[in-house]
Design goal:
single chain; about 200 residues; alpha+beta; five-stranded antiparallel sheet; three-stranded antiparallel sheet; binds fe (ii) ion
């Protein structure tokens, strides 16, 4: 178990948002970012215990890192068995990488005439898979832990400080949006900077 993978991922993402994303090139940011996240979630040996604790119900949103300029953040979503989110949007780009277990994401689009939300594509994520959320293409969805007998964990990366922005949940029947600010479950972030063991080993 090593947090090195997370520290390297944060470094790579910081380079990316200083380049492609600074140029407002969302497609390039997501293309490269998805590869980086895909590599991160291919290995399940780095997420600290405290950010992987399965809640008794619902889901925990643990902030692992927020860029100092709030250009991106990294969050571990830990799902109780069968947990379901409300139908919601994000107000920024997002990437969801499956680390442990499995989840489903059901996309919704407003009906042009009635405004009601209609269910669309159902995406199932397995460990190593990455799903992209692009507001311009429609990013309203509902996420469910596909497993009913144990927890699941996905690693989310967003193009901002997702827990602190105004976004929406929706009434599916009417399409009516309701403002919400999700916040974060944890009060403390993991320490990615204690590299003393490798320094000692090298001396
Ligand atoms: Fe979402």
């Amino acid at each position: 178990m090593s947090i090195d993978r997370l520290r390297r991922f944060i470094g790579d993402m910081t380079s990316l948002v200083g380049g492609a994303w600074q140029d407002r090139d969302e497609a390039a940011t997501l293309e490269v970012g998805a590869k980086l996240l895909g590599e991160l979630v291919l290995h399940d040996d780095w997420l600290p215990e405290q950010a992987a604790k399965v809640p008794s119900h619902g889901y925990a949103q643990n902030l692992l890192w927020c860029d100092p300029f709030e250009r991106f953040c990294v969050v571990s979503f830990v799902w109780a068995p069968g947990a379901v989110t409300p139908v919601h949007d994000h107000q920024m780009w997002g990437m969801v990488g499956m680390l442990r277990g499995s989840e489903t994401s059901l996309a919704f689009k407003p009906d042009a005439e009635t405004g009601a939300l209609k269910a669309g594509t159902l995406t199932e994520l397995k460990p190593g898979d990455v799903e992209l959320l692009v507001p311009a293409d429609g990013d309203i969805h509902q996420v469910t832990n596909a497993l009913t007998d144990r927890g699941s964990i996905s690693i989310h990366v967003y193009g901002g400080n997702i827990g602190a922005v105004r976004r929406h949940t929706f009434d599916v029947k009417t399409g009516e949006p309701k403002l919400f600010v999700s916040g974060y479950t944890n009060k403390e972030q993991p320490n990615i900077w204690d590299r003393s063991a490798e320094t000692r080993a090298a001396s």
